[in-house]
Amino acid sequence: MLTKIESIEQFDQLITNEGKFYLLKHSLTCPISHAAYKEYEKFANENQNVPTYYLAVQDSRPLSNEIAERFQIKHESPQAILISNREASWNASHWKITNRSLASASNENQ
């Protein structure tokens, strides 16, 4: 199940409470982002044991910027990030966000 987050406080809670989770930075107006969201959604439905969250860049710009700064990952949209043990262990953007790439990264970062 996908859960939307909108604030730095919500993200800080995830970092504290979740050992491993995915976050998708999603644009509400970009067709490439829509395609990535569909792949992300498919992954979430098939891998319900992996927590999956997303943010809408237009609604949560401060959070999006904070994540880029905190993990030293250049902001892109769409962008999927795997957070494991409070660190970004994998990320991909645009057409590289696929059900297969998300599953592979999840398996490689146990």
Going by CATH, the architecture would be 3-Layer(aba) Sandwich
What is Rg?
12 Å
Order of helices and strands: EHEHEHEEH
Helical segment count: 4
Q: What percent strand? A: 25-35%
Biggest sheet descriptor: 5 strands, mixed
Protein name: Bacillithiol system redox-active protein YtxJ
Pfam family, one: BrxC
InterPro entries: BrxC, Thioredoxin-like_sf
Organism: Bacillus salipaludis
Explain the overall architecture.
It comes from Bacillus salipaludis. This is Bacillithiol system redox-active protein YtxJ. It holds the Pfam family BrxC. InterPro entries: BrxC, Thioredoxin-like_sf. The protein has 110 residues and is of the alpha/beta class. It has a single domain (2-108), classed as 3-Layer(aba) Sandwich (Glutaredoxin), CATH 3.40.30.10. Helices cover 43% and strands 25% of the residues. It contains four helices and five strands; from the N terminus they run βαβαβαββα. The longest helix has 16 residues, at 31-46. The two termini are 20 Å apart. The mean pLDDT is 95.
Provide a compact summary of the structure.
It comes from Bacillus salipaludis. It contains four helices and five strands.
Secondary-structure map:
Layout (H helix, E strand, L loop, with lengths): L1 E3 L3 H10 L2 E7 L4 H16 L5 E5 L4 H11 L7 E6 L2 E7 L5 H10 L2
Parallel strand pairs: 1-3, 2-3
Antiparallel strand pairs: 2-4, 4-5
Helix pairs in contact: 2-4
Keywords:
110 residues; alpha/beta; Glutaredoxin; five-stranded mixed beta sheet; 4 helices; 5 strands
